[in-house]
Hints:
Blueprint: E1 3-10, H1 15-18, H2 21-39, E2 43-48, E3 58-63, H3 67-75, H4 78-81, E4 85-92
Antiparallel strand pairs: 1-3, 1-4, 2-3
Amino acid sequence: MPQFIYSLLPTRLEMLTVGPEREAEVVRQHFEHLQGLTAAGVVLVAGRTQTADERTYGIVVFVAQSEASARQLMAEDPAVKHGVMRAELSPFRVALWSGTGPNDGGA
Length: 107
């Protein structure tokens, strides 16, 4: 199945350090949404940089039947749908996979 990646950038950088509750709630929904897609085998990996400045971004690598369905999946991400993050989609292909995940639980 084709693979895609979307990158995420916060629409308001300050939300990372002093965000209002609305943004925090949307980010919680975003995380839960990605957890569900991961459990369903759609999301291969998702994460973000550990910076809280203009270099901050997140990624979601996933599988979809087509670019149109990939675009729809990205648009349904609560962070994108509610304007908390901007997203950009690209076709992608994982070239190497270690077979192991993060050893710290990922959180």
